[in-house]
Amino acid sequence: MSDTIRFTLDGREVGASPEESIWQVAQRCGTDIPHLCYSPEPGYRADGNCRACMVEIEGERVLAASCIRKPAEGMVVHSASNRAAKARAMVMEMLVADQPAKTDAHDPTSKLWAWADRMGVSESRLPAHSFAEVPAPDPSHPAMRVNLDACIHCNLCVRACREVQVNDVIGMSGRGHTAKITFDFDDPMGRSTCVACGECVQTCPTGALMEARLLNEDGVRVEFEQQTIQSGCPFCGVGCQIDYHVADGEILYADGADGPANQNRLCVKGRFGFDYQSSPERLTVPLIRRDDAPKEPHAKLDPANPYTHFREATWEEALDRAAGGLNEVLKRDGSQALAGFGSAKCSNEEAYLFQKLVRAGFGTNNVDHCTRLCHASSVAALMEAIGTGAVTAPFNAAKDAEVIIVIGANPTENHPVAATFIKNAVKRGKRLYVVDPRRQMLSRHATRHLQFKPGSDVALLNAMIHTIIEEQLYDRQYVAARTHGFEELVEKVRQFSPEEMEAVCGVPADVIREVARDYARSEASIIFWGMGISQHVHGTDNARCLIQLALITGQVGRPGTGLHPLRGQNNVQGASDAGLIPMVYPDYQSVAKQEIRDLFEDFWGTDLDPKAGLTVVEIINAIHEGQIKAMYVLGENPAMSDPDQHHAREALARLDHLVVQDIFLTETAYYADVILPATSYYEKWGTFTNTNRQVQIGEPVVAPPGQARPDWQTVQEIATRMDLDWTYQSPAEVFTEMAQVMPSLKNITWDRVVRERSVTYPCDAPDRPGNEILFAESFPTEDGRARIVPTDLLPPDELPDAAYPMVLTTGRLLEHWHTGAMTRRASVLEDIEPEPTVAMHPRQLRTLGVEAGDMVRVATRRGEIALKARRDRNVPEGMLFIPFCFEEAAANILTNPQLDPFGKIPEFKFCAARIEPAAQPAEAAE
Ligand SMILES: Nc1nc2c(c(=O)[nH]1)N[C@H]1C(S)=C(S)[C@@H](COP(=O)(O)OP(=O)(O)OC[C@H]3O[C@@H](n4cnc5c(=O)[nH]c(N)nc54)[C@H](O)[C@@H]3O)O[C@H]1N2
Ligand SMILES: Nc1nc2c(c(=O)[nH]1)N[C@H]1C(S)=C(S)[C@@H](COP(=O)(O)OP(=O)(O)OC[C@H]3O[C@@H](n4cnc5c(=O)[nH]c(N)nc54)[C@H](O)[C@@H]3O)O[C@H]1N2
Ligand SMILES: [Mo]
Prior knowledge:
By secondary structure, the protein is α/β, with parallel strands linked by helices. Helix content is 28%, strand content 18%.
């Protein structure tokens, strides 16, 4: 039996599914019905308010809005009857009457004008409404203009803001002729709580809400694209797909495309952050350090003027010098004196070539990248437990969950588009628990926010596990069939009763029990986690606890369940898979295992180092110890992103030879001997793997500046100068080679990724979509079972004391990316968050005797910075939060480089600090 509804549309019998509207069926059958208040994009509810899509239904007295009306069996619909067409033309004429004339339209290409043109309604015979008052233009936002004289009250922007992105900023106030769109309490947009996702701009059918940079001073659109190219977003691991609109070789604006991860949605960075690409500070020529410019550990260069310390060189000379220096150290001090940092900002192909260069050319496994500072501990715990480090389910699985836990992650700022799907799920009645010492935007949507003591995750999570075991809420069958080590866990967590852990973590025992019960009992529970879990000296233990929660309750392997460490960089999953890790070759195959090494020695035609290499922080330490003498740094900025910055920069300055390949003169490049200018994401082909295991294509949208070259080409140039006979002609060729040694890429080819734009791994056949939800039957471990490793309570490495009484935690801001290299050169982003601040609770400000905006000094055992105080109720008393993107007050001067013993990740999320007022007065920062 089928539940297809049969009806007649314009004389043709057609079928509809029960969810489809008449408009959708018509569209599917190739009939365009005008529409304004309706958006066919995913996530939009039909509202049927504008009447532009009316159709005639036989036997009905009034016309029906086709966007909202469902067909019924036997219905006879005329989409283009005289009556319908006339009524629609009248609607259009009335709307046009109230618009600015087409000649001064804010956007003459808007959906409204496009339909008006198609319907032959270019001007109106009707008088304009006498509005009580046409709202004045609102130019308060750096990225978007509000021109409500063009607003038709279709409320698409309200749905965009409240139902799709769930930011709840835009509303409709007043009635009838006084009705208007408002931001918060009728605030100017730029002073409202708007997070500038731009969803409203993307959906507005009239140009009432638009990208500011397309308009002239009179609010009239003057910039039009010549071309639209689909590619990806270069920022976070969500992996949004984007339509870039380009004119005269420049990106004009960006719209969300319908990628599997983002479904047309974007955040402020993807939509408005692209103009770092055209920054005048882009590196455009190769540079060689001047002989009269010694390396000073605490140098400050002007990235706009490299010529104080560098001179321009030809590519030939620069490449010879870059490779020459590496060869010299190799010959003099041997392979172990060399190291490389690869990049999670570069493509899979570039990551693969880089690790191959270090392994086959340098002869060492000293190759690592920012994953070490990121999810290394999560990956260590996942590998140990379930034999793989990637997510078990995509973040979009939140929609199928009943209970969602977000712990140590702040997705509305750091994975904003993923956060929209979590918020959508909550709107549909799912329960959300946010577990974080700081409150955050998601807390408002949460069933509960567990605001516990930083660094006490193991106490809290073991108490949850204790509850689940004590109250027999675990899944006996699952535990018996799918895991090892449960008995040891039972033993271990005996000492972790919620009643005892309450004092340690600060969460009342009954709340711990309630959350544990809900997680265990729900039909489907999913866990998302981030840096609040991983960036601790006991980060691996934290992740182990989360994995155990899922394993003992069987909350993995089914729709709506799973373990999802939210991966950070746009290609950190891919760069890790491709082997930018010192202990493993591509696909996490151990360098220490003879049979695997044999395979790679054969495949690459060279001997390989049998010893695991050093990790990021270990490499910095090894420079101090005089072991490592030369480095190649590709697309990373350790002078800003490594902990204990003075120590890291002193190391970089000590190197005999440093090659930096980047798109900007970064703080790391200050210490370079040779700087090689790279193309940015927007200028090259490559594949990138997002947090959902989706391998996606990046396609060039503009030309590179000056002599900048794609990274893969430059890596190859270095390789050939180190006696490797590489002759790759394209990223496609590199991908093909990678796929031969990476089982994860089975059934995925370059052509397929280009054609389909996104392919999830693992994938069972070349013509079948990949598997989103993994491990329904078994885990990729030796015997297919997961391993439970119980954990102990360990304190953070550096606890507050009398001299340093505060807890300092560091992290991110929505608008900025890590070390600021890209986003501080993106005009809109820099405009919104222009200066460093330290966030603290209002009572903390009072205790200190300072106001928001006053300068303060924050010191730890490693250094001191001065920056403005910021009032933030989300930060608990006793804690300070500093983002690490501002070089002028670099958070990493303060952070503790102590490492987690398994993941080798530093404790970015916890150290002891002191704060005091600084002398200088300053204006307010709120
Ligand atoms: N805008 C923006 N987005 C980004 C990035 C960026 O730089 N800017 N970077 C990307 C990258 S690489 C990454 S890895 C991700 C990171 O994304 P997230 O993991 O969300 O990163 P953070 O903001 O560093 O930290 C997350 C949370 O950990 C909490 N936390 C601190 N201490 C503890 C603790 O002891 N326990 C628990 N449970 N929580 C704690 C903090 O309060 C914070 O809310 O973001 C990615 N997205
Ligand atoms: N205090 C503190 N420190 C932290 C963290 C924290 O939470 N607190 N988080 C840590 C984490 S999770 C991470 S992932 C790291 C990130 O640390 P990094 O990876 O060092 O930070 P990014 O700023 O992302 O550096 C990327 C670099 O790549 C360059 N780039 C961009 N695109 C391209 C390209 O196409 N080609 C080339 N060649 N270069 C390109 C950029 O200009 C930039 O210099 O920071 C870590 N450090
Ligand atoms: Mo990260």
